[in-house]
Each structure stands twice: as C-alpha cells, then as structure tokens.
C-alpha cells in the first residue's frame, strides 16, 4: 500500500509553504502519496497583505484577539478530509509565541477530529525565533482532536533575536528583501537554505520511522 501523507499548514509570508514544498518533494521521492491542505484566512479582523501598512496599527490589531485565544474564519478544501492518512504533518507559523490563528482555528473545529482521529501526526513549526509554545499548543490541540504525536521539527530564521526581528520588520513593512534596515545590515528574511535541507531530512526521517520506508 502506498503511504498517504497530508501536509496541513497555513502560510502568510511563504516560509511554511517553502518548508512544506521541501518535505513534499522528499515524501514523493520516497514513494508516498502527498496531499496538501493549505488553510486560507478569510476573517477581515486578520486581513493580511504585503507590505503591511500602516504596520503597527495593522499588526497590533490582531494581537488582542489572538492572545485571548479567539479563533478566526478560515477556508480549506473539506473534501480532502474524507481520505485516511497514515501521517498528518501540521505546519504552524509562530504568531506572538503561539500558533498562527488559522492553525488554532482549524484544530478547534470538528474537521480536525475528522482528519486526526486515529492518525499519527508530526508538527513542524516555522518562526523567526520562538517555537516552543507554538509547538506545545499544536501538539496539545492535535492530541485532543484524537491524533497521536509522532515527531516534530522547527525551522527558524538566521541570526539572534534582534537580527531576526530586524529582518522580519523590514520584510513586513516593505514587502522586500532589502540588505539594510534602520541603518543595520540584515539577514535575508525567512528560513535559510540549511533550514530547507533540514526539512528534507526531517521528511526522510518521518518516511523511515513512521511510514516504514527504508530509503537505503
Ligand atoms: C503576526 C505575527 C506575529 C509573529 N510573532 C512571532 C513571534 O512571537 N516569535 C517569532 O519567532 N516569530 C514571530 N513571527 C514571525 C513568523 O513566525 C515568521 O515570519 C514565519 O515565517 C511565518 O510563517 P509564514 O512565512 O509561513 O507565514 C510573527 C509573524 C507574524 C505575521
């Protein structure tokens, strides 16, 4: 039987999507059937585009609803939940330490139980620097939805807290990958190439440890 993998994620600035792409490439090469379920945020309270302007007003507008644990309106292809998957990989960007709102919104829906009940799941967090609370929350909600935890990995940006923050602020405010911000040289925004290689290696590990596929 061909192992079936569901890659379920949300991505605003494309980094979680890039990690999912790298993982999908490896799963397919390892002989798995890969389905992608990308969540879309359709809630006006959290309307996002790039560049995000006026930046602070827009970004702070959704801190409060998020930290109060409120969910948002999301869209996804519900038909994809009808299939059974051997492994569900949940890709969760960090927003204010927690999972991005579309991820928590999905995991609290009955739809999450439909796809996770009786399935193994892996968590991949994508962030500037903070992943622990995001990971713990996704793990807890997915377990509550009936899934059983298999493995996790995290994909962070280059640099220390300040450096990654400058890259982040520059990119959201300008929508461009510039070399300098506020007079400082900055790293390129996003998961570096090493992170993408790590995503491939994570998918290889999952294929052999969770799907019984030995690539040797
Ligand atoms: C509203 C918002 C809040 C964020 N908060 C954090 C945070 O608390 N810690 C962190 O490390 N990264 C934070 N980030 C950075 C994202 O985790 C990072 O940009 C990641 O690439 C997002 O995934 P995506 O590119 O798939 O949208 C935040 C991003 C946004 C948009």
Mind explaining what this structure looks like?
The chain starts with a strand and ends in a 7-residue tail after the last helix. The chain is built from 8 helices and 10 strands. The chain has a single domain, classed as Rossmann fold, CATH 3.40.50. Strand 1, helix 1 (15-29) and strand 2 (33-38) form a beta-alpha-beta unit. The mean pLDDT is 94. Helix content is 39%, strand content 22%. The protein has 216 residues and is an alpha/beta fold. The longest helix has 17 residues, at 193-209. The strands form 3 sheets. Strands 1, 2, 5, 6, 7 and 8 form a 6-stranded mixed beta sheet that branches. A two-stranded antiparallel sheet has the order 3-4. Residues 11-17, 59, 93-97, 126-130, 168 line the site of flavin mononucleotide. Flavin mononucleotide binds next to helix 1, strand 5 and strand 7.
Ligand catalogue: flavin mononucleotide
| CATH class (first level) name | Alpha Beta
Task: Work out the count of structural domains.
Answer: 1
Strand content: 15-25%
Q: What is the straight-line distance between the termini?
A: 19 Å
The name CATH uses for the topology is Rossmann fold
User: What is the total tally of β strands?
Assistant: 10
Number of helices: 8
Fourth-tier CATH superfamily name:
Flavodoxin domain
The helix/strand class is alpha/beta
CATH architecture annotation: 3-Layer(aba) Sandwich
Characteristic terms for this protein:
alpha/beta, 22% strand, globular, Rossmann fold, binds flavin mononucleotide, 39% helix, 10 strands, 8 helices, 216 residues, single chain, two-stranded antiparallel sheet, six-stranded mixed beta sheet
